[in-house]
Write a structure and sequence with these properties.
This protein is mostly helical. The protein has one domain. The protein has four helices and no strands. Helix 3 packs antiparallel against helix 4. It is elongated and about 40 Å long.
Amino acid sequence: MLNPALVFRGPEDVLEGDELTREQKIEILHRWKFDALQLEVAEEENMGSEHPSDILDRVLQALQALNTGPNLR
């Protein structure tokens, strides 16, 4: 749960995880969102080379698919 990118290939895989409850999926996606936002800040400060906005968009879409907003649980 601390680093979703090490366990899941993408946010879409979290949605497909039948072994996870809805609440667990939301928690994982919120963690991933936090990580993506941190990467975005690092990129703005020229500290990273990844494109966190791509993953952030995918995380937000996954949260929306679970009928929750990006800030709601």
